[in-house]
Amino acid sequence: MTQVKGGPRDNAGRPRSGGRDRTSGRNRTGGRNRTGRPSAALALPGVLFFAFFALAPMVLALYLSFTKWNGLGDPEPVGLANWRKLLSDDRLTQSLTVTVSLTVVSWAFQTVISLLLGVWAAGGQRNRAVLSAIFFVPFLLSSTAISLLFYALLDPNFGIIHKDTLGTTSGAFLAIVFVGGWQFVPFHTLIYQGGARQIPEVLYQAAAIDGAGRYRQFFSITLPQLRNTVTTSSVLMIVGSLTYFETVLILTQGGPGTDTAILPYLMYEAGFKSYDFGYASAVASFLVLAATALSLLMVKLSGFGAMRSTREGM
Q1: At CB < 8 A and 24+ separation, what contacts does 242-245 make?
Q2: Which of 155, 189, 265, 266 could disulfide-link to 159, CB 3.0 to 4.6 Å?
Q3: What Rg do the C-alpha atoms of the chain give, in angstroms?
Q4: What's the whole-number mean pLDDT along residues 185-212?
Q5: Is residue 239 within 8 Å of 233, Cβ to Cβ?
Q6: Distance between CA atoms of residues 132 and 121, nearest Å
């Protein structure tokens, strides 16, 4: 074969696909490198978006946590004063307790329902697609709209329950759990549906031959095969439950008293009621650090970081 200008060619004189442009050094395979993987440059828009709308606000909040600022003028550096105030604040302990309790109960409530619905939706039942689409509708609504809807439904005078549900500690707590679950269960159902569809059918066929019933198949095949899916869903669920701000603000405003004042609501009170944005930024930074540490701990304990396929060896 003769090497001609413009790159290597085959015996018919046609350019070989995937050749490298000698003048520009770029790969002709549509942004892929020599290994066939997409070029890192394709991730640049997403990286810039994340840096501008996520990293930059977090860095700014961390900076403001070391200052005293009421929203006007220039922030005044105060060192660790806001952090010392935060760690000695009795409201932090209470808010942290409420936040952890809400997170644990919300995780248990949403995981059980979304797991069962996801496994069911992955089957071949009649009208399954239509029902799955209907289940997904609540996730398309905003948290504010959903909270306003349930606030009207739970109104003791004009709602469907003629009882002051939001006026009691247990009622307000369970209302937040239910409203959050009503909105986000569809999303996690979709995650479990996708995971259940990846389970090889041959496993269920072999189990049926061995005489395993539906419940035995669920606990011996479905749940073990969904362990990575459970970890993914749980991380998203727990981090999301740490930010139920709109739901708490609209439904209970942290009440009755301060019984449902979670950490984001404490941040809101410090920033937009007391105009102490330095202290509010310290609360926000503490919340980010706690959520990040919790997520990393879950990934570490679950072994999800190994990323071994549940279909290994098949």
Answers
A1: 242/99, 242/103, 242/287, 242/290, 242/291, 243/287, 244/102, 244/106, 244/176, 244/180
A2: 155
A3: 26
A4: 93
A5: no
A6: 7
